[in-house]
Model the fold of this input.
Amino acid sequence: MREQFSRTELLFGVEAMERLANARVAVFGLGGVGSYTLEALVRSGVGTVDIVDDDKVCLSNLNRQLIATIGTIGRYKVDAACERMKEIHPEVVIHKYKTFFLPETAAQFDFTQYDYIVDAIDTVTGKLELAVQAQKAGTPIISSMGAGNKVDPTAFEVADIYETSVCPLAKVMRRELKKRGVGKLKVVYSKEPAITPSRDMGVNGCEDEISCEKIFSENCGEGGKHAKRRQIPGSNAFVPSVAGLIMAGEVIKDLINFSG
Done:
C-alpha cells in the first residue's frame, strides 16, 4: 500500500485498502456535493472512478464547488476534476462522461460494472432513473437530497428514502420511487427548513431541486444549460460540502463492510 494511504490503513486495515483499490465508483454530478464526494473517495484510495457531468465551471461555483478556481473557470468540470484527482492520486483510473444524465442518456452506462453509484445530480427525473437503474443492476447507490437554501451542516442524516420527512425533494422521491417499484434508497438529507433566497439571480449556478413539486419535469442542469427559468437556491461553502463528505463516508464504509 502506498504511503499516502497509510493513515487510512491504520483505521481499516490492509484488506480494506485492497478492496478500495479494486473498487469502481460512479459519481453523477460534480457540483457542491459531488465534487467533495469524489475527492474524498480518491483520497481514500478508490482505484477507479467514473465522473459524469456536462457542465463547465463558472464564477458562481467558486463559493462551494471543490474543483472551482479562477484557473478552472470555463473548463468542463470532468476535465478539471480529472486533473485535480490525478494530482492527488496519480494511479487512479478515471472515466469521464461529458453527459447530462437523464433517462434518455442512461443507455450510455452499464450500471452492473460499478461497485457503488453516487447520485449528486439535481434533476428529479435523473435521480429517479439512477435509482431505477441501480436496482436493476443490483448495485448499491446513495443519493443526495436538497442542500440548497440551508445553513446548518449538522442537520444532515443518513436514512432510507422511506424513512425521511420534511425535505420537499425526499417527498417527491418517495412518491415517484414507489410508483416505479423501487423499495429502498439510501439518502443523505436534512430536515432543516429551507431559507427563502433574497433574490432571483437567473439560471446560472443551478445546483439543487428546491421547489420540487413545481419543477418535477424540468431538466435543470448544473450550469443552467438545460435549465428553465425558476428561483435559484442560495448555497454556501459549508453545507453541500458536508453532505458530499457524508456520502463519501457511507460509500467507503459500505465498500469495506465497516461496522465500527
